Amino acid sequence: MTGLVIDFETNGFYRSSVLSVAAIKIDVDWNLKKVDRLDTFVRHYHPVEKWNPHAQAVNGLSAKKIERLRTSAEYPAYFKDDHGLTNFASEAVFAVAHNAKFDSSFANLQIPWICTMKLCGGKLADAARLRGIVVKQSQLHEALYDAEVCLDLFTLLVRDEKYLPQQDSQLRRHYNTNR
């Protein structure tokens, strides 16, 4: 079953601009308790509104850094104008994020979302460390790094059967047809 692990870094909270998005396409074999990484999507954008210094203090994404990360970028400057994530997600039947309520508000993907924060509790770094995942503090709040840590958490949930798709009403139908 194909899914995505997604993280957004934004210029604030809900309804602010996306500055960075990372999505990791995965294939989950629930019976074998196996998660395979298939592909990765990473993009950086300029905000539509004025730069938010509070957000910048958290995610470290400044105008200068975004420019450097966008060197030779062949996609729109603003997330709102880019359909790359939607295209990348076209085969996915579910998405995973550490704060699914927040991330899903930006992604506009009409698929079920699994929230590792709801399943594991606490902040991403705390939930990961509690489960023995090494976390590099200096890389937190980089979209790709956070998505990778979230993927590690989700993989543990699958292996330990802490999350079973047949218990999720939205995923049950996909699980039953792909067995």
UniProtKB/TrEMBL annotation:
CDD domains: DEDDh (cd06127). Gene3D superfamilies: Ribonuclease H-like superfamily/Ribonuclease H (3.30.420.10). Signal peptide: none annotated. One of its GO terms (biological process) is DNA metabolic process. It holds the Pfam family RNase_T. SUPFAM superfamilies: Ribonuclease H-like. InterPro entries: Ribonucl_H (IPR013520), RNaseH-like_sf (IPR012337), RNaseH_sf (IPR036397). This is Exonuclease domain-containing protein. It comes from Solidesulfovibrio magneticus (strain ATCC 700980 / DSM 13731 / RS-1).
